[in-house]
Amino acid sequence: MSIKRITRRKFLELMGIGIGAAGTAQFMPLGKTIPDAKAAAKVKTPPDQLMRQKLAKSTFDCSKYKKDPPWRLAFVTQGKTNSWVVMFDAHVDYAVQVKYKGLFSDFFYGDSQGNAERQLDVYEDALVWRPDVMLLAPMGQAAISASVDETMEMGIPIIYNSSRAESDNFVTWVEASNYRQGAVFAEWLAKKMNYKGKYIALSGIAGLSVVEDRLRGARDVFSQYPGIEELGQAYCDFSPAKGKQVTEAFLAAHPKIDAVWSGSGLQCWGAIEAFVEAGRDIPPVSGEDLNGFLRICKKYNVDFIAVNYPVEIGLHAVDAVVKTMRGETVPRYIDVPIVKFGKKDIDKYLRPDLSDDYWAIHKLPEDWIQKLGFKKK
Amino acid sequence: MKAEESSLRGDTFSILERGGIYIALVLVLVSAAILSPAFFKPSNLFNVLRGAAPLGIVAVGQTIVMLGGGIDLSLAGVMALTTVVVADITQGQNISLVPALALVFGIGIAVGFLNGLLVTKRRVPPFIATLGVAILLEGVRFVYTKAAPSGSIPPLVRFFANEAVGPVPTNLIIFFLVVAGFLFVTHKRPFGRHIYSTGANREVARLSGIDVDRVTLLTYVICSTLAVLGGLVLAGFIGYADNYLGRGYELDSIAAVVIGGTSFAGGSGGIGGTVVGVLLLTMLFNIVLLLSLPIEYQLVVKGAVIIAAVALYSFRTNRN
C-alpha cells in the first residue's frame, strides 16, 4: 500500500485540471446527541438532538458500494491547526496505516487550513482525484452541502467525521456530543453545589457551534435548578490568558463563586490561576482531558470534572469506511462514547512526561505519541 | 455677539480636540464608579493595569509604525512565534533562557527588517506586506510546532510578567519603561522628529535630507521587537505556550492607537494618547465583565468608542 499526501497544487499539476468553488460556512459541528447523560432526562430535547435520535434508529444499506480492496480514501478535514486536530487526524492515519493495513491503496489528505471557504476548493480537488470513498469533516454546514449531494450522486459514499454538512445525503455520521459534554459538566457542578449556588461560565470563541452547543447543554441543565444562578458568562477565545483576565474581573465583582463551568480546559486553566492569585478557594471546575489542564488541577489539588471530546472519532470513522466498502449495513449515526473522570483518577490520565497540549484519552500506541512530538525534550 | 459665540464654539472644539481622549477616560472612570464600585477595588485595578501592559507594549510599537505612515498586522504572529520558541527551547527552565531570548529577539528584528524592506524597497503597501508576513509566520509556527507546542514558560519570564513589586505589577513597570523610552525618543531625539516628518509627508521629508527608507524600516524593526517583548509578557502572564497567543492584538493595538489620536495617515499623534487608548480599551473590557454584560455589549461599546474617536479626529483634520 502506498500512502501519500497530495497537495492541491501538485494534484492539479498532475491532472491539469483546476476547479474552483466559493461560499461561506461556519466552523465545526452542530449540536449533538445526549444519549446517556443524566441531564438529558431532565431537559426538553432540542430539535437537533431529536434529529440525532432519529438518525440513530435508521441504517444505511451499503451493498451498492461493495468493492474489493484496496480502496482509495479521501479525507477532507480542517487541517492541523491545533493539538486536538493533530491527534484526531492521527487516529485516521493510524486506522489506515496500521489497523486496516493493506486495505487502502492511496490516501488523499485535504487540508483546509482552518478555513471553511478553502475547504470547498480542497473538496473539489479530492473529487477530481476520484476516490472510492470520502471521509469528510465539514467546517460549514451549508456551503459544502451541494458538493456532498453531487458526490453521493457520483456513487462515492460520504462518511461525516465529527461534524456534518446540512445535506442528509450521506452514509453515516460519526461524532460525539458537544451538547452532552456541556450538560455533563453542569450536572456534576450542580451536584457539587448541592443544587444551590452561583457559578460563572467561561466559553471558547463566540459563535462557534461547538462552543455554543456546550453552553446550551450547560444552561439547559442549570436552568432545572432554581437555586442555581449564573453570575456571568464570557468568551475567552480558548485562551488561558483571557480566561485568567476574565476570571479576575468576575472575582472582583462577586465575593462568592461556587463553581466554574468552563467549556474547555484552556480557559479553565487561566481561571484556576486567577483564583490562586486572588487567594480565594478554588471551587469545583470543569474541563477536558488536556494535559496542561490536568497538570494545574493536580498542582493546586482542584476538584474537577474532565470530559473528553474524543480524538478517537477519526478511528471510528475509518471503521465505518471499511464497513461501507465491504457492503455492510451501517447505522446512520454513530455516537462515540465519552469518558469522564475527576480528581481521584487524575494520575491515571496526567502524563508529566508529555507536553501541555497532549490529550489524555486516545487509542494511539505510545510510539505514535512520541512521533507526534508530545514528548518533552 | 456672533464673533463671541463663534469663539466659544471654537474653544469647546479645541478642548475636545486636545483633550477628548482624556475626557473620555474620566467619563469611563466616573461611569465605573457609579455602575460598578468593584472596579475601584485595589485588586481589580491591579488586574486591569496588569492586563493592559502586554497590549500597551505592542501598541507603542504600532504607534511608532503608524506615526511613520505604516501599519503592522504581523505583530500577533511575532508574539505567538516568540512564545512557542521560548517554551520549546527552555522547556520551562531558566537555564536556557538567555539563548532563547537572543533567538526570539533576533527573529523579531528579522521580521521587522522583512516588513521594512518589503515596504521601502519593494514598495509593497504596508497593509499587504505585513499581512503576508503574518501569514508566513503562522505557517512557520505550524511547521515548527506541528500544531502542538511543547515546553512551558520559564519562571523568570513569569516573574517579570505576573508578579509585583509592592503594589505595582512587574509587567506594568516594563510597560512604563517602554513608554518612557519611546516618549523620549519621539520627543527629544532627531529620530523621533524624522518619524513624524516621514509620516506627515514622505516626499518633503526626503527633500529635507531625511533617509525616509531607513526611518520607515526602523519603525518596523522597533514594532516587531516590541511585539517579542509583548509576547513574552503575555506568555508569562499564564505560563502556557499558546499557539494562538496574541490573537487579536494586531487589531486591538491599532484600535488603541487610533483611539489615542494617532492618525492613520501618519505624522500626528503620539504615545501618550496610545497609553490612554490602551487603558480605555482594557477598562471597558473589565467594566463589561464586572457588570456581567453579554459579549454583544462589549463589542458594541468597543466599536462605538473607536468610531467616536475616529469621527472626532476626522473632524479635527477636516477643520484644519
Account of the 3D structure:
The complex is a heterodimer of chains A (377) and B (320). By secondary structure, chain A is α/β, with parallel strands linked by helices. In chain A, 40% of the residues lie in helices and 17% in strands. Chain A has two domains: 8-175 and 312-337, Response regulator (Rossmann fold, 3-Layer(aba) Sandwich), CATH 3.40.50.2300; 178-307, 3-Layer(aba) Sandwich (Rossmann fold). A six-stranded parallel beta sheet of chain A has the order 3-2-4-5-6-13, sandwiched between helices. Chain A is globular, with a radius of gyration of 21 Å. Helices cover 77% and strands 1% of the residues of chain B. Classes of the chains: A alpha/beta (377), B mainly alpha (320).
The share of residues in helices of chain B is: over 70%
Helix/strand order of chain B? HHHHHHEEHHHHHHH
Proportion in β-strands of chain B: under 5%
Number of helices of chain A: 14
> What is the CATH C-level name of the largest domain in chain A?
Alpha Beta
> Which structural class fits the helix and strand makeup of chain A?
alpha/beta
Terminal Cα separation of chain A, in Å?
33 Å
The count of helical stretches of chain B stands at 13
Greatest chain-chain interface? A-B, 42 and 40 residues
**Outline of chain B, from the CA principal axes?**
globular
Q: What name goes with the CATH superfamily of the largest domain in chain A?
A: Response regulator
Q: List unreliable stretches of 5+ residues of chain A.
A: 1-37
